[in-house]
């Protein structure tokens, strides 16, 4: 029943589906790990129990999100050897070592300190536990560093040479490959996006509990911290996005042409098309609502600056304009909505009404998932805008896919859809349940299983300890920490 389908299109859909699920969890865990480090640092500095309660509250959520991110990431790795084995063969000498460094640095760092962070609050000193939390947060950033370096090289490939067997081989300097022209912009833009994603989730949870009880100290603290992040970081993200756009215009001009909907060149200043329906067959944006010359002002800082259009690009190198056009607008619209909510919260704070305006709280609740939508829209803009190349201007997507039949790819795609929606749907449902419970004084963090660690053969467990005695000991240790 799948023989009439295109194997290349199915492979692209499968990778897009799995990476979309995966991208959600790192975008959340990167920001949440740093938020946990801030909470624990504030607790150590001020001694206020509200920070410790919030740390333990969000630690449980982080543990689940981190686990789902790891599992979904492992699945993605296998696709490089299955659906995209030709790509792995040709680009592997360049991207393989970078992905290996992600495992050897970030993953090992996170794995080494994650156990201490989750279960070591009452077993190690305060400073050592805080150091473990900071190492996990650093590990999430380092992971983003290497993965974005790989992706950026695929967008702006430099520093390589062509081998005799058709492979792309590293040249004289790995630094040129790692720090390729688009990498710094992508790293800054993506990491800030992760921080904003977490901030709006935290703000949405705080707003939910404020709507139910405005006197909740924990809800007030969450909401206040999140709104500070929105007010201060959203403008920085818009600036970083503008810089990223200028870099993309320099190195991937047809992607910007698709984002702007410019099918035709504009020698005397290009308009900014706000909305419309791109028609790639007719080479026009129908029902366009545009502002004259504003696109030239944004991209060239000159109202009359000429901008080339897709009429200068061969048809077989033109990206899917409709998808890129709308995904870019969704991302930008959410960015300005974040900016607006941050400004609204500043006004409420100045009037000492931050916790007393239900409309603000409802708006924050609606905006809670906005960061996830924005990062997915941004990813679609980046990856679809690179088409028809998987390595920009070097390797076409149709030449990078494995020689698999459509039925085989379709069967695995259906299996992924069923398993992902089941497993990750249950995980997301459980996270939402945890968020629905209000933080309280004496919040309990991640608890160790009652049976303890699994014993290896030949090691006899010690005498069974009275569980009530152990819980009392943990309570005493907890009071000492407070």
UniProtKB/TrEMBL annotation:
One of its GO terms (molecular function) is heme binding. It is an enzyme of class 1 (oxidoreductase). One of its GO terms (biological process) is aerobic electron transport chain. Its EC number is 1.10.3.-. It is found in: Cell inner membrane; Cell membrane. Residues 467-482 have a biased composition (Basic and acidic residues). It is a multi-pass membrane protein. Signal peptide: none annotated. GO terms for cellular component: cytochrome complex; plasma membrane. Residues 445-482 are annotated as: Disordered. The chain crosses the membrane at residues 15-36, 57-78, 98-121, 128-148, 187-211, 223-240, 323-347, 359-380, 400-432. Keywords: Cell membrane, Electron transport, Heme, Iron, Membrane, Metal-binding, Oxidoreductase, Transmembrane, Transmembrane helix, Transport. Pfam families: Cyt_bd_oxida_I (PF01654). Belongs to the cytochrome ubiquinol oxidase subunit 1 family. PANTHER family: CYTOCHROME BD MENAQUINOL OXIDASE SUBUNIT I-RELATED (PTHR30365:SF14), CYTOCHROME D UBIQUINOL OXIDASE (PTHR30365). This is Cytochrome d ubiquinol oxidase subunit I. It comes from Novosphingobium marinum.
